[in-house]
Specification:
- The chain is mostly beta strands.
- The chain is about 0% helix and about 50% strand.
- It contains no helices and eleven strands.
- Strands 2, 4, 5, 6, 9, 10 and 11 form a seven-stranded mixed beta sheet that branches.
- The N and C termini lie far apart (about 40 Å).
Length: about 120
Amino acid sequence: QVQLVESGGGLVQAGGSLRLSCAASGRTFSIYVMGWFRQAPGKEREFVAAITWSGRSTYYADSAKGRFTISRDNAKNMVYLQMNSLKPEDTAVYYCAGAPAGTWPRLRRVEYDWWGQGTQVTVSS
């Protein structure tokens, strides 16, 4: 089994930055892709970014491209989401997720098997 725990959420002003962290434990050798999703009140959970565990490939939603950076540190079993130029529309609960070996890229919620509990990001105007 894989366990994922997010941290780093909080309140930030528009235009500011925040870095989210996701710690993976358990059978981390099973992880092929790590992703970040977010869910705002009244909206569906949406894809933000993904990275292969090897770090060979990354993929970003249009809303994140140019502002967010996904990275990983396999030695620490950590995945990060650096968020810059934050906007009020970025306000959401952010979730990290893991997927086993399979296709690439993986952009859909149903393609991920393991999920963290979520961390709240609030961007004030």
